[in-house]
Each structure stands twice: as structure tokens, then as C-alpha cells.
């Protein structure tokens, strides 16, 4: 019988969380020489060279501190659309520097780490690293704004380099999500810490409509996943209901050892809180290179027009882009499998 994610309630001890702050499977082998810049967009090569130089400096032995106050460590912010290679460069930086020196995680994973360890313990643990790599930097609520502003300030004051990626310029974080003007001081304090590296170019997946992935019949999805050892298959509605009961910090553990995920009954997700949970799950699927088979309507109108016009637009577009890539991989893997 095919496994389901809804049967899983993973527990992740706090002491395991920090050890998992390394580049995910999808980017585990990311290297600077594996990043192929588009000649039509020179900013890509410039960003690669800047990141490579930073990695070389961080990997070098620390110099003995001088008597005068040292200059603050660099803080870089890679801004650009989805699919231009920001995450690849960030993962390459973490890989080049090494797991004992760099911490790598998404923005939401850092906020969850603080929740699990407590603020002081998180600062002490992260303060032992030379560089903190933050992928998908996004401010979704006032609490996150204040938390990350304080966290980055304390880490920077401790001599830790901060490197982040996002689809939104730092001074625009929070726009359309909450009353950002009420927290303008915190947002401006965050923005002032970063030197912005803009990376131009189209999505390397070359889709004019990101995330368009047709659905298979639900019966085909069930049959295909049943033929793959280690696969799981869930109804999308039931899975979303299950995600409400699982903390997002455990979504990665929810997918542990899953070789392929089939989703049946796929259709529009009308509730924004549910849609954002699905976005986090898609990110964890992408991190772990888990192929996906979509039934129902596929990604057609998976997120409503209102969502795609709202403050979380870039999150949804990123999820659609990634889900389409995983779905294409799932269809290719299923087609290549020998008949049962």
C-alpha cells in the first residue's frame, strides 16, 4: 500500500535543527564554476565573482584582532527574479566556506530555529559561525520584522557576515503583507545593513508562464506512485488539512525518505493561510529534489488571481515555478519506469 504524508507526525529535537542548517540536497553540490552566467546579463557574472571573493575571504584563517575596533563584517543581499541563480550562489558560498563555518537556511527556518531554541540560545549558536546564509528573505508579519532586525543586529555586532537572497529589495520588505509603515524604522534598519547585488535575467527554466503544469488523472497518479518504492500519495485537500496540524519547521522531516509524491484532487486553494503552507511544502520538496505527480487540474489556477496580485505574489510565483519543474521530473521518471 502506498504511504501517505497524512500518517506522519514528525518530531524534530531542537539540538538537530542547527545541524541541519546546510545547503539542501538540490544544491548540495553547488559550486561557483557550475553557475553559468547569461552573457546578456553581466550582473550574473559580477554577482558570481563577488560571492566567490567573499567565500575565499571567509574560508581564510582569521587574523588576530587589532586593538582598534574592526570594521563591521560585510552584509550582502542578492536581489532578482526567481530562476536567476541566487540560491545556487548562496549554496555555493556555504559549501565553499564549509558546514562548521557557515549556516545555511531559509528565512522561515531561521525564525523557526529561534522559536525552538529561544532567542539568546539561537544568537549564541549562530554567533559561532562566520557567515549566516539566509535564502528567501521575506517579512510576512510585524513579529518577524522585529525578530530578524534584532537577530541580524546582534549577529553582525558579533562579527558574523550575513548574506541573504530575496525577490524583494530590502527597503520594500513587508509591503502588501502588513502595515509596513508602522515598522518602517525596523525595515530601514534591516535595509541599511545590506549591500544589494542585483541579478538580472529571465527564469533559467525558460517559462513564459511560470508553474503551468497539466494534471494527470488521479487514477494514473495513484498507479504511478504505487510502482515507485518509497513514494507517497495524498489527496491535496487532506494533505493541506494535515499541514495545519504540523509546524512548518517539521515539513522537511515530513518528507524524509519520500522518493516521489503524488497529489490527487489538485485544484484551487482558496484560503491564503493554506496556500502559504503549501508554498513552504513546495520549497521543502524542491530542496530535497522530490519528484511530484499532480492529478486533478495540475497547477491551473492553483493560487487565485487575488493571491497572484497580492503581497505574497512572488512567493506564489516561486512555488509555481518550482512545482512545475518537480512535476516535469515526476512525469519523466514515471514515463521511463518499466511497466509493472
From TrEMBL:
GO annotation, cellular component aspect: cytoplasm
Source taxon at top rank: Bacteria
Keywords: ATP-binding, Cell cycle, Cell division, Nucleotide-binding
Biological process terms in GO annotation: cell division
Molecular function, one GO term: ATP hydrolysis activity
Record keyword ATP-binding present: yes
Pfam family, one: AFG1_ATPase
Every AAA+ ATPase domain range: 72-200
PANTHER family tied to this protein: AFG1-LIKE ATPASE (PTHR12169:SF6), ATPASE N2B (PTHR12169)
Protein's recorded name: Cell division protein ZapE
Organism: Actinotalea fermentans
Native organism taxonomy: Bacteria, Bacillati, Actinomycetota, Actinomycetes, Micrococcales
